[in-house]
Specification:
The chain is an alpha+beta fold and 136 residues long. Helices cover 40% and strands 24% of the residues. It has a single domain (25-131), classed as Alpha-Beta Plaits (2-Layer Sandwich), CATH 3.30.70. It has helices spanning 5-20, 27-42, 77-94, 127-131, and strands spanning 49-52, 62-68, 103-113, 116-126. α3 (77-94) links the parallel β2 and β3. The N and C termini lie far apart (78 Å).
Amino acid sequence: MRFPRSLVSYALVFCLAPLACAREGHEPEARARLTTVLRDSLGAATDPNVAFIANGGRRDSHLYVMFDTTEVPNVSDSVFELRARDIARFAMRHYEKAGELDSVTVATRESIQPGVWRIHHSSAFGVARLKEQRVP
């Protein structure tokens, strides 16, 4: 019995799609747990998101933490930088796969309309810089 080529193609795509979309390891769960910890720490109104920046390097090496501006409304760049460093350190302490990270970016966003955000502040930190001791 011969099957039409299109039917075989659809069957092949249907069988291979779950493999292509499979989650790799526990990374999505680790991000979800970090998001929950951030929400508990910063407050639910901040609606934190945790993702990765794919910038030609290793896939899970640059953590991106973004939250609503309610956490740091209308602050200067220097004040944001201090708060962002604290949040990045907090994220490093609570992210299960922190040893695999090269850097962490913290950003604030304002919702302009559904699906459209305006980034107010953004700071990136190398992992080595986050591990340095604070100077009082």
